[in-house]
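#dry-run=false #mode=assembly
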Amino acid sequence: DQQVKQNSPSLSVQEGRISILNCDYTNSMFDYFLWYKKYPAEGPTFLISISSIKDKNEDGRFTVFLNKSAKHLSLHIVPSQPGDSAVYFCAASLQGAQKLVFGQGTRLTINP
Amino acid sequence: DAGITQSPRHKVTETGTPVTLRCHQTENHRYMYWYRQDPGHGLRLIHYSYGVKDTDKGEVSDGYSVSRSKTEDFLLTLESATSSQTSVYFCAISESGGTSGRDTQYFGPGTRLTVL
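#status=ok
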């Protein structure tokens, strides 16, 4: 039972363009959503998060949008840079549960 | 960078042998987690700890046990390794669960385990 789903295993984007990574979830009780970034041979690192009471959070080139009615969130990267090439994981948490549920990940490749 | 180390970084073992992976932190964080990463499955929680001697199961805990006798160390044991436990294992730590924007989970570099 995959509660958090990233249906695109990979995405290729040209440098300078917008990258959009998508994530769907099934549990309406999730109260926080997070994105992590992972380079090869390294552990994931936190990128950006959003509370379920908001619909947008922005941090520099990264913006996360949350559509609760559709149980969908997306990560926008503008403009995309070669260093953004990595695997991106979407994660969600239930209020009071000090643990995360992760999606399968999307491998983003930025082409020069 | 958060002070998290994992040992060993790589291990090859045979089916049926016991294996212990170690996670060590220097941050004095309360929460520690063990995940496995597999293609098509992302990161899945195996076990986690919310204090010394306080642990709980994650979504894929069968075949694994954990122990935390000190704040800084969290051990993951495969009592009798199987080929399905071939994976990359990540340890993570956080002050308060890492489930909001005010806190985050910090991950170690990972251990690549191969069970032949």
